[in-house]
Amino acid sequence: MFNIEKAISGWRKEMLAAGVKNLNALNELQEHLLSDVDAQMRSGTEAETAFSQAVQRIGSPSEVCEEFAKFRSRPGAAFESWYLVAAVLLIIVAFFGTSLVFAKLRMDLVQRIVGFLGLVVIVLIACTWRRALPYLPMVPEQRRGYAVIFLWLTTAALTALAAFGVPNVVIRLAEEGLIGSNGLVVALIWSGVPMAIAVCVFLAWNLSPQERARWGMRGRSTLN
Amino acid sequence: MYSDPMLAKELVAASTEPLILSLLSKGESYGYALIQDVKRLSGDKIEWTDGMLYPVLHRMEENGWIKARWVESETGRKRKYYSLKKDGEKALKQKQEQWSVVASVLGALWTGGELTPTKA
Asked: Would you say B55 and B39 are in contact if contact means Cβ atoms under 8 Å apart?
């Protein structure tokens, strides 16, 4: 006597063995299988035949796994969430480092506010540059991505230079005798980290899934 | 995606996403129903290998075109329903325009009429 429960259990084991390990995907496939069996049985097919035909229609475990694997193997899938973690950590470090430098330079309140605003502007640009895409119809489609990134990097760099007054800071650091000891490290944190933040935030937040795919950053896999 | 001999496999593959988007634009649906709808609407000329549909649906979900939710069906079993998102509507519009261009060019060539200018 055919037992559908046993048959389903066997089919699931085969799928798991073939590599379809995501339970959501497996449950969805199982529901599909059962819907097919139900439909066939309603039109008079016996359960065993209906099941066998449904299994055949769904495809062999290796074929199904191969199709999912194509999706899973896109580059960047495994570590995408790290972009966000890295971005948050870098933001914290950047603000901390910036505060430290401002304190060492004995900057007054207005200078500090301007400095922090510069940092905020960089982060905001990184977070929102994609919104500018629809307003750039003059850029040819195939070059649009490169053009926007170039514009974005230029704007971010100019903002950093203007708001932070990097040359001025370097002079001040030299005057304070900070460069040459731990000052260089502080200066590197102060000037380099905001750009690093901008890049990380840009990678993590700005790209739609399609764009992520285009840049080799496909999102989380549905498998595993 | 696999196709039966009636339609070239490449054509079936290329039309999979537009078909799914179009069907979901009529309302939420689930994998098995989508396959049956395509089969019925194409007069059995487009037949997907059932298991191959799901990686496509998952990719579209990941792309942000469609969203999914598990709902208890009339059988008492949980079933995953898909529906169109805003980005999916945009993607559908884009695909409609692209396929319309192909259809109008081929139509004009095959009927011997003049080509109608179309917006890309």
From this structure: no
Contacts of A26 in chain B (CB under 8 A): none
Q: Name which of B31, B62, B63 is nearest A28 (Cβ-Cβ).
A: B31
Report helix, strand or coil for B79. strand
Cβ atoms of A212 and A72 within 8 Å: the answer is no
**Top-confidence range, A44-48, A112-116, A189-193, B112-116:** A44-48
Contact between B21 and B88 under an 8 Å Cβ cutoff? The reply is: yes
Interface of B with A in 66-105 (CB under 8 A): 73, 75, 77-80, 87
Q: Using the structure block, give the residue that is written with the tokens 């933001």.
A: A91
Helix axes A47-58, A4-18, angle to 10 degrees: 20
Comparing C-alpha atoms, which of B6, B14, B62 is closest to residue A22? Answer: B62
Distance (Å, whole) CA A90 – CA A194? 8
For residue B48, what is the nearest residue in chain A, using CA coordinates? A57
User: Distances in Å between the alpha carbon of A214 and those of A150, A171, A217, B75?
Assistant: 17, 42, 7, 41
Residue A19 to residue B57: CA distance in whole angstroms: 19
Residues A95-128: tens digit of each pLDDT: 787 777 777 777 777 777 777 777 777 777 766 6
State how far the Cα of A153 lies from the Cα of A163, in Å rounded to an integer. 15
Q: How many CB atoms lie within 10 A of CB A220?
A: 14
ipTM higher than threshold 0.95: no
Question: Is the dihedral angle over the CA atoms A98, A99, A100, A101 positive or is it negative?
Answer: positive
Q: In chain A, which residues have their Cβ closer than 8 Å to the Cβ of B79?
A: 31, 35
Q: Do A220 and B64 touch (CB under 8 A)?
A: no
Residue A153: pLDDT band with limits 50, 70, 90: confident
Q: How far is B111 from chain A (nearest CA, A)?
A: 33
How large is the average pLDDT for residues B72-94? Answer: 91
Regarding pTM above 0.90, the answer is: no
Task: Report residue B100 CA to chain centroid gap.
Answer: 15
